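Hi there. Long-time user, first ticket. I'm pasting a complex I've been working with (about 357 residues overall). I'd like to know whether the download I got is complete or cut off, because the file seemed smaller than I expected. Thanks.
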Amino acid sequence: MRDTKYMAIPPGAIIPGSLPKFKIYVLSRDGRYILWARDGNEVKKEQLNTLAESGPQEVFIDLEEEIRYEEYLETHLGNILDSQGMPDDQKADVFSRVSTNVVKDSFETSLGLGRMHDDAVRRTQALVSHSLIFIAESNSLKPLAKMIGHDYKTYEHATKVLWFTVAFLRCNPDILEEIDPGFPTFDEARKKEILKQCGVSAILHDIGKVFVSQDILNKDGPLDALEWEIIKRHPLSGFAMLVDSETPDFVRKAILQHHEDFHGGGYPMSAKGESITILARVLRIVDVFDAMTSRRPYKEALPAAKAAQIMVGTPSNGNEPEKDPKEDPRDRGMKQCFDERLLRKFIVFLGKVSSQM
Ligand SMILES: [Fe+2]
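Hi, the file is complete. Here it is re-exported in full:
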């Protein structure tokens, strides 16, 4: 039986030439954990090759050193996601783990400050930058498809919104070009920079929720009027938290407007149509899609096709969406929320994701 003192990690996460600050173990045939690499020692390529030849699929770390392992993953994320030998689903796990930690730390460090800490902004930028190629490549759609139906947790939701947003925009460069139209050139370097900043906006879209109590965020049942008023402040709080940060204007505006409805009636300003920035319109779609297809304490996850049907507002009977008594009222009648042109493109994109399921 495996010892609960140790945690399995994928050997592909260990980058040759790196200096992990944690001990690495292998499991012998007779079930003993044998020290394979000391903390602080360089892991050589030959060592890793020998390990691969000997056949074990996993290596182990002491659970007490988990924080050091997580710091290591964040530092080496770019190399890990770039490595040839590691399967995509393992890369996706590493990406989700690092991303969840970065978002969680961003929320926690910002709470006392009232704004986003400069270090948290830098870590978020680095995270998106290091994961951009992996996310944007079409072979990351398969692990992305597996994320549909997971639990809705604030930090994981942020990671999924980042992933969906970047993958969607990568498939639709015409939208990407509209995001920052004031810039004179749109070459590959510019495209990459905008994509990165869109990812930053996506991962931080709910950062203003640091000011909303957990009791309200996790309430199992309908919110009362006051609770709704508190929830509705989070886009403005998020915008305010980033005002003095080194983020482009379109990143902050998208955070401010991610609950505005294309046909009016959203919050905080009840803005309409193209006065809502295009990135905010994209985030509105991705945010709702992920919320509907995630499992909540009070409702089951909807399948992707059903969520898309509600978002489009054209159920199979051709009339209003069916009134399922168990359905969250916030999931009904959503047609007025979205820019139809973008929603159509998103549904085409979902078709590509679903084909990987
Ligand atoms: Fe939000």
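A couple of notes from our side: Strands lie at 6-9, 24-27, 33-37, 59-62. Residues 315-322 have pLDDT under 50 and may be disordered.
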